[in-house]
Write a structure and sequence with these properties.
- With 99 residues, the chain is of the alpha+beta class.
- The chain has 5 helices and 3 strands.
- Strand 2 and strand 3 form a beta hairpin.
- The protein has a 3-stranded antiparallel beta sheet.
């Protein structure tokens, strides 16, 4: 194990934010309702965490209508993909041979 422990991105390290990024990495885009169902989160908590990911530049949000129903879509940005890859690499380093 290296002498210095790697930094884990605090934006990604939150349980719900990590779950959302883990879901978004595998899809082109996802709507708010799907993310809420998959994470078993509340509207308020998910909304707050998505805002943090948006502010960090890790996800992009688009609002549109499906018929007359409003829909909020999220997609992972290239910056978010890189940040998640860096986070996973740091986590692997931190865990070392534990796995």
């Amino acid at each position: 194990m290296p002498d210095e422990l790697p930094e884990l991105d605090p934006v990604i390290h939150g349980k719900l934010r990590l779950a959302v990024l883990s879901l978004l990495i595998g899809v082109e885009e996802a709507d708010f309702t799907w993310l809420r169902q998959k994470t078993r989160s509340t509207d308020g908590n998910l909304g707050a965490q998505m805002l943090k990911l948006e502010e960090a530049g890790y996800v992009a949000m688009e609002k549109r209508f499906a018929g007359r129903k409003p829909q909020t879509l999220y997609r992972m940005t290239p910056v978010g993909r890189e940040a998640l890859a860096t986070y996973v690499a740091a986590l692997k380093t931190l865990l070392g041979g534990a796995l």
